[in-house]
Inverse folding.
């Protein structure tokens, strides 16, 4: 069980540990600051605070890193819970987001230059074959519309297949479909 799983499963405990670490760090910082202030102003009581100074330093050394780790664990736990809560709708949202991105790319040259649809692919939970099919369809549309050359089309097609982990034998099917589209 990793930090992500533990933080997600024990979110309340993670928050409590983070708050305890934060309290330790703040109290230690105030103790060191109080000792420094008393020493600089020449006030009495520096002996009492001075005897606690090693504890304050240890508190800072332990409290600050523990607080940072705790806050990161809380953020990871919240993110893990949020992602699992929306997991069921992610696929539908990813498909819709991909379609919207494709439309925006077709209509806006800046979105095309940035590769908006390719960026959105990261949020898509569909299978590699489904993603590759959608990406190749968009690529074929751009090729047929004359936006990219045949060489660029072949290069990008290979990149898509490599990125999605789709086997090479799918190229022949895609090439056949492209030739049929060109004839029409």
């Amino acid at each position: 069980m990793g930090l992500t799983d533990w933080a997600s499963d024990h979110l309340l405990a993670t928050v409590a540990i983070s708050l305890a670490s934060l309290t330790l760090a703040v109290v230690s910082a105030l103790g060191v600051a109080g000792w420094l202030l008393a020493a600089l102003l020449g006030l009495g009581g520096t002996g009492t605070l001075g005897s606690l100074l090693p504890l304050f330093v240890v508190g800072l050394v332990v409290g600050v890193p523990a607080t940072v780790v705790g806050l990161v664990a809380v953020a990871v736990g919240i993110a893990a819970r949020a992602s699992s809560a929306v997991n069921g709708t992610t696929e539908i949202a990813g498909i819709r987001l991909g379609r919207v991105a494709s439309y925006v790319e077709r209509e806006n040259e800046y979105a095309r230059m940035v590769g908006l649809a390719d960026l959105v692919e990261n949020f898509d939970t569909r299978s590699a074959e489904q993603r590759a099919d959608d990406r190749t369809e968009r690529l074929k549309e751009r090729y047929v519309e004359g936006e990219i050359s045949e060489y660029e089309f072949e290069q990008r097609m290979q990149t898509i297949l490599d990125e999605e982990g789709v086997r090479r034998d799918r190229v022949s099917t895609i090439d056949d479909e492209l030739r049929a589209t060109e004839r029409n």
